[in-house]
């Protein structure tokens, strides 16, 4: 396989689903995890796509990730509900939490759903898209418990996770507006992808173990480890801190501090507090017209032909369209690591070879 290889999305999905079935997941769980990971790659967020598989398998073998497990309600206070993810696949627990929150928002007009102790919930935009597909606005505050890799503003070592923040706004006749990003200058997974590809990351994203700025992604992969910086200096740091508190503390989960440090980087535990709102219930008859007028107004700003003005979420829509047509690109290092993970869970060389042939590599 050369570095320019592209994989057909559905065929790759079949392979990913087979890996989780081989690991012991029931059919539906294997499908939900594969759906989510492939959707992240299709959206262009390879950092949260199938490249996570080796880490998930290590987490399972270390006893952190619980397969065939579900979220359970800890407290139901009507419009506010708290769930324990029970260490389940985040792709299962977050789906269940969003489904319950959507039901609550239908009933009450607004709902807050808190999920703690879930394994990695991946690309947060996926959960926002679940809310938007039901016609709701949603806001998501997320923390990563005890896995610090981001330095506070002015700090020189890692004190918290890449704490993503996400907002979605559905539109009647177009794609939902979607803000979805890590509060670190770049997602950790993007340093992994850059490291596999042997390329640098942009300036202003990393410091090394001595707190010196660097563009070498190896400082996030090889000891002594450095740190990611937050985006937008003190502003990004403040948002990251609020994601930690809103996501970790308010959800009934944990924040990152000395007592909650995880012994393995593969034990990715997420907490998420989500606010889901029915936009129909505001006294805003012009909301749609005002939204579209603003979208057209900003897009009309003069710009270079090769640097279009995009709305939040549009980059993902464009990337999805392109990858459904052209296939999902994957570097050789990530592909090798996924194949090794498949063998680790017991997939035979013969079966692996069949998938390789179907995928054309
Ligand atoms: N589960 C976790 O613990 C965790 C942690 C960190 C990140 N994540 C996920 O990682 C993914 C990647 O995060 P990231 O920080 O690398 O995202 P990113 O830097 O690629 O930013 C993505 C956001 O920027 C918007 N965008 C991109 N280009 C644009 C343009 N030209 N104009 C306007 N808007 C534009 C996108 O629509 C999207 O809202 C996200 O899906 C996030 O949820 C998850």
From TrEMBL:
Claim: Oxidoreductase is one of the keywords in the record: yes
UniProt cross-references to Pfam families, sorted A to Z: Ldh_2
Alphabetized InterPro entries for the sequence: Mal/L-sulf/L-lact_DH-like_ah, Mal/L-sulf/L-lact_DH-like_NADP, Mal/L-sulfo/L-lacto_DH-like_sf, Malate/L-lactate_DH-like
GO terms, molecular function: oxidoreductase activity
Keywords: Oxidoreductase
Domain of life where this protein originates: Bacteria
PANTHER family: MALATE DEHYDROGENASE (PTHR11091:SF0), OXIDOREDUCTASE-RELATED (PTHR11091)
Protein family (similarity comment): Belongs to the LDH2/MDH2 oxidoreductase family.
Name of the protein in its database record: Malate/lactate/ureidoglycolate dehydrogenase
Organism of derivation: Jejubacter calystegiae
């Amino acid at each position: 396989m050369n570095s320019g290889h592209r994989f057909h999305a559905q065929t790759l999905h079949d392979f990913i689903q087979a890996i989780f079935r081989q690991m012991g997941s029931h059919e539906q769980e294997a499908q939900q995890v594969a759906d989510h990971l492939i959707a992240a790659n299709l959206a262009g967020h390879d950092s949260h796509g199938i490249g996570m598989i080796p880490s998930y398998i290590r987490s399972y073998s270390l006893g952190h990730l619980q397969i065939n497990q579900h979220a359970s309600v800890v407290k139901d206070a009507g419009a506010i509900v708290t769930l324990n993810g029970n260490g389940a696949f985040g792709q299962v627990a977050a789906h269940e939490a969003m489904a319950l929150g959507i039901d609550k928002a239908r009933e009450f007009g607004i709902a807050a759903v808190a999920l703690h102790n879930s394994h990695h919930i991946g690309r947060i935009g996926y959960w926002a898209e679940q809310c938007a597909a039901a016609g709701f606005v949603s806001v998501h505050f997320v923390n990563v418990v005890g896995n610090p890799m981001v330095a506070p503003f002015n700090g020189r070592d890692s004190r918290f996770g890449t704490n993503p923040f996400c907002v979605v706004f559905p539109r009647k006749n177009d794609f939902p507006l979607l803000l979805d990003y890590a509060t670190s200058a770049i997602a950790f997974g993007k340093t992994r992808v850059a490291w596999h590809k042997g390329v640098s990351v942009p300036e202003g994203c990393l410091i090394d173990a001595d707190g010196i700025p660097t563009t070498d992604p190896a400082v996030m992969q090889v000891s002594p480890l450095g740190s990611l910086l937050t985006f937008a200096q003190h502003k990004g740091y403040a948002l990251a801190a609020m994601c930690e508190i809103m996501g970790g503390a308010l959800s009934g989960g944990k924040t990152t501090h000395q007592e909650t440090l995880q012994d393995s980087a593969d034990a990715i535990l997420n907490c998420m507090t989500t606010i889901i709102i029915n936009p129909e219930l505001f006294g805003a008859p012009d909301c749609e017209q005002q939204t579209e007028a603003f979208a057209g107004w900003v897009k009309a700003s003069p710009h270079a032909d090769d640097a279009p003005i995009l709305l939040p979420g549009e980059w993902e829509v464009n990337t999805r369209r392109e990858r459904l047509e052209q296939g999902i690109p994957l570097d050789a290092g990530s592909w090798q690591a996924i194949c090794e993970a498949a063998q680790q869970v017991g997939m035979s060389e013969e079966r692996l070879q069949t998938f390789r042939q179907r995928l054309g590599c």
